[in-house]
Specification:
549 residues, 8 strands, 26 helices, alpha/beta
């Protein structure tokens, strides 16, 4: 006897074996047991989720001579056996992709007039029904709405949006969901045990993940892996080899090079992947999913259950996630998502992938807003490390690319400050205790700027950006408000001090030196002109003057 593919050999022959579609199965079983079977059904869902399988089971159940109490077919009577073997005249399967004309539907209209020769019902299963022509749909309408009492139509499709509303309104619609990774894994493990094949848990889980919610795809991939290593234990490395996939450690190395803007290091990883014979389309899809997982790790600490990773891989990915910002990952995902469709049909897949890598490591190649923000991030990091200082002309040129030059003071020249008595305003508006508190806070800020410990903790480059701030008193007269102008330097400083990590580090340093909990907020202003208490720049106040009673 010739070999039968796993997905055909282990096709469910009773409702309880259908996995991941309990909401559909339960409803259909209830209809059968309570004799409330409809005349037209529409099964929608992605490929390999069980639409045709459930349709055949339903056809057997409504024709079974000795149905079980829960509505399932017995699979023992002649009718059930004939339907399972595909020889029953009562169950007619039609592929709408190749039988999509008006004449094909007219044949159905003529056939439904004749009652079944055996069994109770005639069941028409029309697969990929969205492929029918408009004329064919119109020809089906009347028959679908009022078929003979012994006829049931089951329409199956992967693209329900292409079906006319006139057809949809005549059917009971059931949406088949993607099957969860855990459900697919359990089914594969069970079938491997029945087949007498040994496999690593990690290998089975990878196959389940690669199936992307499709049980049929999972069984086909598993079949492929077993055939390649026939007679051997199926290992994780074997599965990676057969499917042309890449391990998480390779992704970690690849992402580290990209995050450091190491173009040649990233391209070397691509070269190694190609020489190992990996499939580049699969690599792009897997790396996009890997970046999605990194983004989840950065977004929330409570996502480990959703990632389905080993403790070892999870720990290594957390280390990599700490090296990149969420905005970077979103840009990387956008670039790879756009490229995933291109590489599938590209004649030079390597060139397509390498070009995408260069876009990630050298954002100056692009001029969209995401890339410009990435360029600013790189410059900030270099300034933080003291690698170089940027001239006013360079900053103005970069900002001009983003279309934001012209707002605020770009030249770096300070605007004329009105001749006001800042000390007098503070004395008038603040209580003596409040004045003393502000004096301590400003003294602590001066010490933080020069103290090596705090400079290392917060960053010398970050602290130097305080020069761009007008340090104001908050509305509660206890907090600080950092105001920045619209210049390039002001925007960069505002972005830096608005980051929770920077803000918390500075607040903690002030607390260490003063023993006070000081809240810091940031804002961007068109003008830093000083007029009243809330606008006074505390860094220009001579706190050495004693308060008078």
């Amino acid at each position: 006897m010739s070999y039968m593919a796993l997905y055909r050999k282990w096709r469910p022959d009773e409702f309880d074996e259908v996995k991941g579609q309990e909401h559909v199965v339960t409803t259909l079983k209830n209809q059968i047991t309570h004799d409330r079977v409809g005349h037209a059904y529409l099964f929608c869902g992605t490929r390999g989720t069980g639409k045709t399988t459930v349709a055949k089971l339903f056809a057997k159940a409504v024709n079974c001579e000795y149905p079980l109490e829960d509505g399932s077919p017995c699979n023992e009577c002649p009718t059930c056996k004939a339907i399972s073997a595909g020889t029953s005249l009562n169950v007619i399967e039609i592929d709408a992709a190749s039988n999509n004309g008006v004449d094909n539907i007219r044949e159905i209209r003529n056939e439904v007039q004749y009652s079944p020769t055996e069994g109770k019902r005639k069941v028409y299963i029309i697969d990929e029904v969205h492929m029918l022509s408009i004329g064919a749909f119109n020809a089906l309408l009347k028959t679908l709405e009022e078929p003979p009492s012994y006829v049931i139509f089951i329409l199956a499709t992967t693209e329900a949006h292409k079906i006319p509303i006139t057809i949809l309104s005549r059917c009971q619609r059931y949406d088949f969901r993607r099957i969860s990774l855990e459900t697919i894994y359990e089914r594969l493990a069970d079938l491997l045990k029945r087949e007498g094949i040994e496999a690593e848990e990690k290998a089975i889980r990878y196959v389940a993940k690669a199936a992307d919610g499709s049980m049929r795809d999972a069984l086909s991939l598993l079949d492929q892996c077993i055939a390649f290593y026939l007679g051997q234990t199926l290992t994780y490395e074997n599965v990676l080899e057969v499917l042309g996939a890449v391990d998480v450690e390779v992704f970690n190395t690849f992402m580290t090079h990209i995050a450091k803007s190491d173009t040649m290091g990233a391209l070397k990883v691509v070269d190694e992947i190609i020489w190992q014979g990996r499939e580049l389309s699969q690599f792009v899809a897997d790396f996009t999913w890997y970046m999605r997982n990194l983004l989840l790790l950065k977004t929330s600490d409570d996502v480990t259950d959703q990632l389905d990773l080993s403790a070892e891989n999870l720990a290594s990915m957390k280390e990599v996630a700490a090296q990149v910002q969420s905005e970077q990952l979103m840009r990387y995902i956008r670039v790879f998502s756009e490229m995933s469709n291109q590489i599938r049909y590209a004649t030079q897949k390597r060139v397509t992938l390498e070009l995408a890598v260069m876009k990630l490591t050298t954002p100056q190649m692009e001029t969209n807003m995401d890339s410009l923000l990435d360029r600013i991030r790189v410059l900030e990091d270099k300034m933080e490390q003291g690698a170089f200082s940027m001239s006013q002309e360079q900053m103005a040129s970069l900002l001009a690319s983003a279309g934001t030059v012209g707002e605020g003071n770009v030249s770096g020249e300070t605007q004329a400050v009105p001749d006001i008595n800042r000390e007098e305003i503070l004395k008038r508006e603040l209580e003596p205790a409040e004045y003393d508190d502000m004096k301590q806070i400003m003294e602590s800020l001066q010490e933080i700027k020069t103290n090596e410990t705090y400079r290392n903790r917060i960053g010398a480059g970050t602290l130097s950006m305080l020069e761009r701030a007008s340090i104001n008193i908050g509305h509660d007269k206890k907090s600080l408000l950092f105001s920045f102008d619209g210049s390039m330097e002001g925007q960069m400083a505002n972005k830096r001090f608005s980051m929770e990590g920077t803000k918390e580090a500075l607040q903690a340093a002030i607390g260490d030196l003063t023993g006070k909990q000081v809240d810091i907020t940031c804002q961007q202003k068109e003008s830093l002109e000083e007029s009243n208490l809330s606008n006074i720049n505390l860094s220009k106040v001579n706190f050495g003057i004693e308060m008078m009673d």
